[in-house]
Design a protein that fits this description.
With 96 residues, the protein is mostly helical. It has helices spanning 3-25, 37-66, 72-91. Component of the dolichol-phosphate mannose (DPM) synthase complex.
Length: 96
C-alpha cells in the first residue's frame, strides 16, 4: 500500500465526518451567526490543521538545514576528482 493510500484512508473519512458536522451546524445560520465558539472552532478546524501542517513542515526543513553535517572528507574527494578530470582533459587536448 502506498503512502498516498494510507493518507487517503485517514483524510477521506475525517473529511466526510467534518463535512457532515459542518453541514448540520450551517443548516440555518452562516458561519458568522454561530453563537458558540466551539462551533466556530469546529468549522475552522481544516484551516487550522493546514496551518499546523505548514508550520510543522517549515520547522522540519529549518531544523534539518541548521543541523546539516559538514562533509569535509567528501569535499576533499570531490576536489581530487575534479583535479583528476581537469588533468585528463588537458592531457587529451580537450580543454585549454
Amino acid at each position: 500500500m502506498t503512502m498516498l493510500m494510507q493518507w487517503l484512508q485517514v483524510l477521506v473519512p475525517a473529511g466526510v465526518l467534518w463535512l457532515s458536522v459542518a453541514a448540520t451546524f450551517l443548516k440555518d445560520k452562516t458561519f458568522f451567526e454561530q453563537e458558540s465558539a466551539f462551533v466556530q472552532f469546529l468549522l475552522l478546524l481544516p484551516l487550522l490543521a493546514l496551518i499546523a501542517l505548514g508550520v510543522y513542515a517549515a520547522g522540519t526543513v529549518l531544523y534539518k538545514t541548521f543541523t546539516f553535517n559538514d562533509c569535509t572528507e567528501a569535499s576533499k574527494d570531490l576536489q581530487k576528482d575534479v583535479a583528476e578530470a581537469k588533468e585528463f582533459l588537458k592531457k587529451n587536448n580537450l580543454v585549454d
